[in-house]
C-alpha cells in the first residue's frame, strides 16, 4: 500500500495537471543550466599536403582530430512571444579540450612541440597527440518552438547562432601546438523536452553546434605541420540540463 501511494503521488506530479512555476505566462523569465559536451576540430587538408613534390610536410601520414569531453554552465533569459515561441539568450562559460593525432611515417623524429604522448605501431607510422585547451565565453541567441503542453510535458526544437571568444590572449594561444584564433560564430540546433514540477521546470536537451569561421592561424603554427592544414572549424555535441 505504501509503494502504491508513493507511485500514485509521483504519477500525479508528472502526469497530472499540477502546477508550473508560472514562468510560461511571463513576458520575461530566467533559469540556469549545466551541460556536458564532446567537441572536436573539423580539419581540412591543404593542397600542399597532397602535392608529392612538396617536402615541407611529406613526413605526415594523416591528421586525425578526436572528440574530447568537457563541460559548461550558464544562465538563461527567456522572452515570450507566444505560448509556443520564445527567444532565448543563454550566456555561458565552457571548458574545452581539443585532441588531435598527427600520424607520421615511422622514420620521423619526435620534434613537434606540445606533444606529451608518442606511440608507435606496426602500420609503418607513429602518432603524436597534440592537445589544445580553451576556456570560451559563449553568447547564444536562440529561437525555441514548443509543442502544446500535454499534462506536464512539452517537446521543443531550438536553433540559432552564437558568438564566442576565448578568455586567454592570442599571445598565450600562440604557444599551443596547433594555433587557432580566439573568436568564432557558430550555428546551433537541437531538441529537448520540458517536464513541469510544482515549483520549477526541468528540460533536458541535446544540441549540435558547428563553427562558421576558419580559426586556423597558420602563421603561428609550428612549421612541421603548418602547411598540411588549410582550415580548422569547431564542432560539438552538448547535453544541457536546464532548470527554470
UniProtKB/TrEMBL annotation:
It holds the Pfam family OMP_b-brl_2. This is Outer membrane protein beta-barrel domain-containing protein. InterPro entries: Beta-barrel_OMP_2. It comes from Algoriphagus boritolerans DSM 17298 = JCM 18970. It comes from the Bacteria. Residues 26-216 form the Outer membrane protein beta-barrel domain.
Amino acid at each position: 500500500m505504501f509503494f502504491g501511494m508513493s507511485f500514485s503521488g509521483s504519477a500525479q506530479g508528472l502526469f497530472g495537471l499540477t502546477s508550473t512555476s508560472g514562468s510560461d505566462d511571463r513576458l520575461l523569465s530566467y533559469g540556469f543550466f549545466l551541460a556536458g559536451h564532446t567537441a572536436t576540430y573539423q580539419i581540412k587538408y591543404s593542397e600542399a599536403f597532397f602535392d608529392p613534390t612538396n617536402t615541407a610536410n611529406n613526413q605526415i601520414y594523416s591528421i586525425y582530430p578526436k572528440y574530447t569531453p568537457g563541460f559548461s554552465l550558464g544562465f538563461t533569459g527567456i522572452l515570450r512571444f507566444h505560448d509556443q515561441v520564445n527567444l532565448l539568450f543563454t550566456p555561458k562559460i565552457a571548458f574545452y579540450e581539443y585532441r588531435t593525432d598527427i600520424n607520421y611515417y615511422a622514420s620521423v623524429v619526435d620534434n613537434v612541440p606540445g606533444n606529451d604522448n608518442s606511440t608507435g605501431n606496426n602500420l609503418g607510422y607513429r602518432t603524436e597527440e597534440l592537445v589544445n585547451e580553451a576556456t570560451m565565453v559563449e553568447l547564444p541567441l536562440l529561437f525555441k518552438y514548443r509543442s502544446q503542453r500535454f499534462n506536464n510535458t512539452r517537446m521543443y526544437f531550438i536553433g540559432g547562432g552564437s558568438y564566442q571568444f576565448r578568455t586567454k590572449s592570442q599571445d598565450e594561444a600562440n604557444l599551443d601546438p596547433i594555433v587557432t584564433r580566439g573568436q568564432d560564430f557558430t550555428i546551433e540546433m537541437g531538441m529537448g523536452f520540458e517536464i513541469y514540477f510544482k515549483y520549477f521546470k526541468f528540460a533536458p536537451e541535446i544540441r549540435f553546434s558547428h563553427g562558421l569561421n576558419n580559426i586556423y592561424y597558420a602563421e603561428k603554427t609550428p612549421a612541421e605541420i603548418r602547411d598540411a592544414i588549410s582550415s580548422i572549424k569547431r564542432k560539438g555535441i552538448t547535453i544541457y540540463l536546464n532548470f527554470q
